[in-house]
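Attaching the record inline, Q. Sequence:
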Amino acid sequence: MLNAAPTGRRTADPSGRRGLDPEAHVLVVEDDAAMRHLIARLLRENGFRATGVRDGREMWETLRNTAVDLVLLDVMLPGQSGLDLLRLLRSERGSLPVVMVTAKGAEADRVLGLDLGADDYLPKPFGRRELLARIRAVLRRARPPSAAAPEGTTTRADHRLRFEGWTADLARRELLAPGGAVVDLSGAEYDLLLAFLEHPHRVLARDQILELSRGRLADPNDRSVDVLVSRLRRKLEGEDGKGAMIKTVRGAGYMFLPRVERGA
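Structure, as predicted:
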């Protein structure tokens, strides 16, 4: 099985490269929490954005609210299986790259997954290098680096997330205020904002925020999350708190209230 990286150390990228695109987004669909967190952390440490979800319901919710470049899909899931979800993905999101992951290594299982349209198939246990190499290979096939974008079209680097007049530039990792000024955000504040923008109108529990913050918090506990949210809230809402954007849901977590739109 995938081994945990040493705490506090950055996993080396064996290819010497980071993600193919500026923070290509991988959706990890895995019901085992420890494995899901470990894979997501590995991807983030190697230049990708990563969102982890537990099942098909959370997968569809994420796909409706944010752009995803590749789905890493476990076969054995509660409710709908990964193979059932793959069938639906191919009918509704035909070109979205999918890499299947399963503990089953039988040839029949691999053939079935590939026949249903999986771009690759990775049996457990697998190593970090193999996982990263397969993801990069699938992304290369999906978006050949030599293919130039036609004039007048937007590229991923042009994509932005907009809300209430604010703009998050995903390529530059910058937040622009409604007047156009760049807002000074720490790495943890930016990652928290991105988590909210990718899950608007959804309650994020503190443990989810800790996971999505890429381990940037020096003291990872509920109090440090509350402090981080307060810092981001002040920068978005001002000291007077007018025009609230982040709602505290007592006993549950936090919810981002504005409508989020994607566009160049």
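The CA atoms of residues 3 and 189 lie 29 Å apart. Confidence is low (pLDDT under 50) at residues 4-20, 144-158.

More tomorrow.
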